Predict the structure of Small, acid-soluble spore protein H.
Amino acid sequence: MNKHRAQEIAQSADTIQVMYEDKPIYIQHVDENTDTARVFPLNEPEHEFEVNLSDLVEQK
C-alpha cells in the first residue's frame, strides 16, 4: 500500500477493510519517515504492532 493511501484510510471516518497477513486490521498511525504503520487486528485491539506499508492490502 502506498503511504498516501494508508494516511487517507487512517484519517477516514469510514470503515475501509485493510488486510495484513490475511487478517483484517485497523491502521492507527502512519509514519512517513519509515514507511510503516501502527496497526492492530480488529478482533484484538489491545495487540498493537508496526508493519511495513508494503505488507498492507486494501480490500475492494
